[in-house]
């Protein structure tokens, strides 16, 4: 289970919150900003609870039950997918499970109540009677039909007893009314439920479907994509069409793979919900149709190497099962389809033990610093990562991370080495996130990662699922605080001559100044580059008036961040350090102050007169 978010509104709840936190490794206490400090700060309770709920995070809120209910009420439509939500009195005197009966809310209520030495306010009849939620089987098992499950439990509550058929060790301690001759039966089986109302069917995820692509590989998108002209040029239109065709081909191929797997399961009377994973050959790792098919079947996609065979006769799905599975199983074929084979194991299988996953490398931007300015896709990538790489300061900014996540922090500024390391981890099947500050594509790691891939010629690296997630760059974050200095044409320049000759920087500065572009300077100075900023300002002053506004943002979005506006004439390099963003206005950039507080705004109008 995901660790819960323990949410408090004030200091009075902190002690009880920390007691609860001790029960759940990696859980964090979320506290209302400005009222009390804990592990994670939030600014508005309703929005925060809804965000947590929408992400499926279990919630323990130390406040009135009514407040919690009102906050999440707009989201309560899908009962099957709700996380546990509990209200706990801020002094720890009451524990009220509110939502998430099928996600173990009552189990949590019992655990928390025991820790706080009170009785949980459990209201679920089945739970009270049997001491467990029969409709909430453990990881690796799935209820065949929730509606039937509810009918079944109400029959039990009405006084009927039940048999248990199959392996259900989690029911051993339940106080179920058992009888070998009962009309009702709890059946743990991979076989599909036939609709009998006197059965509660629970499927163990004990089946693996292996597929070989054969003819499907030919029709799948990868092939069409590889035919796209390398230099798109005039063929952009044609390329776009080919791309659309490739996507259509993928969708068709995915539907076909899904249908063939379903047909094979059907032929053997097995339930789709018994499927633990889809298994394919490592050579098909980049095939988009396979990934879509696994998503449609709602199972992880795993890979195993296909044994080499000179005659190509060995390339069967049964061979894949042989290489990938470490548990005993029975192989099942579909006589009409050689491209699919099933492995049926006696117990649920952990998909993480089947072959290997396709590795993933996601290069993310954290934004300038505060969690609020990190895009949700970056947060999601961090949450899903097994390994996190980056410069120490940024890795700290990305936290807090879970204990099971491996951090490869480094002081090493050698970016290409870091990119190589990331590909090595990802090509071994890990889910790697590389962090940059701001936007990863602006003077940061994304270009280094792509350069490493481009120049490596390494096919294992090429099979990695690579994604770049944008972030709020320092220029944008600084501009927003100052007003809108980038409101018209602008450019971003790095003043560092570590990776380019100073002469290029000078030429660019002159051209940008002549073109009357607003300029955002990254890496304006450092101890190793003491004179460069003064030289750059001398050049700009040749073209721009001394009263041109200059915005200086230091540590924007981070603790102790400052924002100043000076004129180009006043600016001294001593006002600037390597944590500063310098935005030099154009001829039209202006500033004004307004209101009783004398708020100062800087903006560049969208027009020239
Ligand atoms: N990828 C980053 C930029 C990396 S270059 C981005 O998109 O923001 C590093 C430079 O960015 C620093 O020298 C500084 O000029 C600027 N910078 C990065 N974070 C900043 C922040 N929080 N406040 C002000 N400037 C920042």
TrEMBL record:
GO terms for molecular function: precorrin-3B C17-methyltransferase activity. Pathway: Cofactor biosynthesis; adenosylcobalamin biosynthesis. Its EC number is 2.1.1.131. Residues 48-126 form the Cobalamin synthesis G N-terminal domain. InterPro entries: 4pyrrol_Mease, 4pyrrol_Methylase_sf, 4pyrrole_Mease_sub1, 4pyrrole_Mease_sub2, CbiG_N, Cbl_synth_CobJ/CibH_dom, GbiG_N_sf, Precorrin_MeTrfase. The keyword Transferase applies. It comes from the Bacteria. One of its GO terms (biological process) is methylation. Residues 360-571 form the Tetrapyrrole methylase domain. It holds the Pfam family CbiG_N. Keywords: Cobalamin biosynthesis, Methyltransferase, S-adenosyl-L-methionine, Transferase. NCBIfam families: cobJ_cbiH. This is Precorrin-3B C(17)-methyltransferase.
């Amino acid at each position: 289970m995901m660790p819960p978010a323990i949410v408090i509104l004030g200091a009075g709840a902190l002690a009880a919150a920390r007691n609860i936190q001790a029960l759940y490794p990696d859980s964090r206490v979320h506290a209302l900003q400005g009222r009390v400090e804990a592990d994670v700060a939030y600014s508005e309770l309703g929005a925060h609870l809804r965000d947590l709920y929408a992400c499926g995070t279990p919630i323990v809120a130390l406040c009135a039950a009514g407040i919690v209910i009102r906050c999440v009420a707009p989201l309560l439509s899908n009962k099957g997918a709700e996380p546990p939500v509990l209200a706990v009195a801020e002094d720890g005197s009451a524990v009220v499970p509110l939502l998430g009966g099928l996600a173990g809310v009552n189990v949590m209520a019992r655990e928390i109540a025991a820790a706080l030495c009170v009785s949980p306010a459990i209201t679920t009849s089945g739970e009270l009677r049997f001491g467990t939620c029969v409709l909430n089987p453990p990881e690796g098992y799935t209820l065949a039909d929730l509606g039937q499950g509810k009918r079944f439990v109400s029959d039990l509550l009405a006084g009927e007893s039940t048999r248990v058929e199959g392996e259900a060790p989690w029911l051993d301690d339940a106080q179920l009314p058992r009888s070998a001759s009962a009309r009702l039966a709890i059946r743990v089986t991979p076989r599909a439920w036939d609709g009998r109302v006197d059965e509660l069917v629970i499927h163990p995820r004990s089946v693996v479907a292996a597929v070989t692509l054969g003819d499907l590989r030919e029709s799948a998108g990868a092939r069409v994509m590889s035919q796209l002209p390398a230099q798109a040029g005039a063929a952009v239109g044609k390329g776009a069409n080919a791309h659309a065709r490739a996507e259509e081909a993928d969708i068709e191929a995915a539907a076909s793979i899904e249908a063939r797997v379903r047909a094979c399961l059907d032929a053997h009377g097995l339930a789709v919900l018994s499927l633990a994973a889809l298994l394919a050959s490592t050579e098909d790792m980049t095939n988009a149709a396979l990934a879509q098919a696994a998503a449609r079947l709602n199972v992880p996609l795993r890979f195993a190497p296909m044994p080499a065979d000179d005659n190509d006769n060995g390339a069967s799905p049964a061979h894949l099962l042989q290489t990938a599975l470490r548990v005993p199983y029975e192989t099942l074929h579909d006589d009409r389809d050689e491209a699919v084979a099933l492995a049926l194991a006696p117990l649920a299988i952990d998909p993480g033990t089947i072959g290997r996953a396709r590795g993933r490398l996601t290069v993310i931007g954290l934004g300038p610093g505060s969690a609020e300015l990190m895009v949700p896709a970056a947060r999601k990538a961090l949450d899903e990562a097994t390994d996190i790489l980056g410069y120490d300061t940024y890795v700290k900014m990305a936290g807090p991370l879970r204990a099971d996540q491996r951090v490869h922090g480094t002081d090493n500024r050698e970016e290409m080495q870091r990119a190589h390391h990331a590909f090595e981890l990802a090509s071994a099947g890990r889910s790697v996130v590389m962090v940059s500050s701001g936007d990863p594509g602006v003077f940061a790691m994304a270009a280094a990662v792509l350069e490493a891939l481009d120049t490596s010629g390494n096919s294992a690296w090429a099979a990695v699922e690579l994604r770049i997630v944008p972030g709020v760059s320092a220029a944008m974050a600084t501009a927003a605080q100052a007003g809108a200095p980038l409101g018209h044409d602008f450019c971003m320049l790095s003043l560092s001559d570590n990776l380019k000759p100073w002469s290029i920087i000078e030429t660019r500065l002159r051209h940008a100044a002549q073109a009357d572009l607003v300029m955002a300077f990254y890496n304006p100075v450092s101890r190793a580059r003491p004179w460069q900023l003064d030289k750059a300002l001398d050049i700009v002053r040749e073209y721009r008036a001394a009263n041109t506004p200059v915005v200086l943002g230091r540590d924007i979005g981070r603790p102790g961040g400052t924002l100043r506006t000076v004129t180009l004439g006043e600016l001294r390099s001593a006002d600037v350090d390597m944590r500063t963003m310098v935005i030099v206005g154009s001829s039209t950039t202006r500033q004004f102050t307004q209101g009783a507080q004398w708020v100062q705004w800087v903006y560049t109008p969208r027009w020239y007169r």
